[in-house]
């Protein structure tokens, strides 16, 4: 291999190293920004007296309570409809 070939090979390797170094710094910056965003979000969740680590369980509990409330409301509306049916001209 000639000196020119080795120089070209070295230049290509240096350019690749510099590009990879730059890319690694960019990725580290994005990671840092993501970690800060996560910390901010966890702080916001904690400010609402919720535990970020238990958020899935809290959401499941809230979904269950919402479902129960909707079902109760539907039953109450049906009961009211049945109670008013004798007094309505066109019951639907």
The portion of residues forming beta strands comes to under 5%
Sheet with the most strands, sense and barrel status: none
What would the average pLDDT be, to the nearest integer?
A: 93
Helix content: over 70%
Rg from alpha-carbon coordinates? 32 Å
Query: What form results from the Cα inertia axes?
Result: rod-shaped
Number of H- or I-type helical stretches: 2
Number of strands: 0
Low-confidence parts = none
**By helix and strand content, what is the structural category?**
mainly alpha
Order of helices and strands: HH
Question: What is the rounded distance between the termini?
Answer: 93 Å
Could you characterize what this model shows?
- There is one protein chain.
- The chain has 92 residues and is mostly helical.
- It is 82% helix and 0% strand.
- It has two helices and no strands.
- The model has no long low-confidence stretch (mean pLDDT 93).
Which descriptors apply to this entry?
rod-shaped, 0% strand, mainly alpha, 92 residues
Strand and helix map with partners:
Blueprint lengths: L2 H45 L7 H30 L8
């Amino acid at each position: 291999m000639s000196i020119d070939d080795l120089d070209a090979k070295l230049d290509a390797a240096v350019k690749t190293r510099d590009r990879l170094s730059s890319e690694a710094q960019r990725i580290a910056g994005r990671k840092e920004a993501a970690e800060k965003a996560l910390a901010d979000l966890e702080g916001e969740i904690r400010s609402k007296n919720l535990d970020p680590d238990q958020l899935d369980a809290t959401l499941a509990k809230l979904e269950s309570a919402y479902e129960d409330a909707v079902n109760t409301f539907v039953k109450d509306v049906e009961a009211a409809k049945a109670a008013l049916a004798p007094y309505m001209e066109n019951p639907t």
